[in-house]
Amino acid sequence: MVFETFQQLFYIKRFNLNDSVTFFELFKNQFYRWIMWSFSGIPLLFFIYKDVHKETENTRIIKYCAIIFLSVFVNILLIASISMLSNSDSFSFHKFYSEYFLFFTFQKVPICTLGYIAVTIILFLNFQKELLEIEVQDLADIKRINQELYNKLSLTNANKAKVLSIKVGNKIKIIPVDTIIWIEADDYCANVHTKENPSYSMRASLKSLELKLSDDFLRVHRKSIVNMKMAKELKLVAKPYLLLSNNEEILVSKSNIRVVKSYMDKQ
What we know:
The protein is an alpha+beta fold. It has seven helices and ten strands. Helix 2 (23-40) packs antiparallel against helix 4 and helix 3 runs antiparallel to helix 4 (58-86). Pfam families: LytTR (PF04397).
């Protein structure tokens, strides 16, 4: 606005068109013309915001060009109309077109068009930046949630027992859990069957042992927990059972078949 005002003032003084005109009078006229330019570009802002999430397409570029052309036309029409009214000229289409519309077309179209193009690019990139910031924040939230879940699972697995301490007579027998084949409920005790010894009896419930042991130990029946690493296959017969590495057959309750199958499918 300041540049155009000085430019206009220069030509007026240079060719002695009007000695009484001042900078502020010319600046006022430039100001309302740029206000009209901003007002005419509102539809452009709306369409950019609406289309920013879409991928770049040739049809959208054509649409933006059409909107810019229309915005420039409306802008020139408004400026010419206000200028004619402010000069108190009697209205006629010929005079309006030849003296005002054509004059502002040659004077304003290039800079108005370039202005709208610049605004389109800046706004589009700005909206794209906001969308990318939202996506980055979403990814950061997902990363944080996954990290928290990983830490929780790591802590859970770290707390799982690596050995079982079983009292045998006056001694405490240490049984590595990876040697356990399966565990059988026996009243208030549990019989721990291992690869090296038929079994050890310990004072514990299956429920408490289930919480202690790793995810490889599945409760396949109300009376048994199986180390699935020791299971060879699942037999889906009338009474389903697991065939273990020592060829023992452990019944699987119907309510636990899905859990067992899910475990085996992941291996």
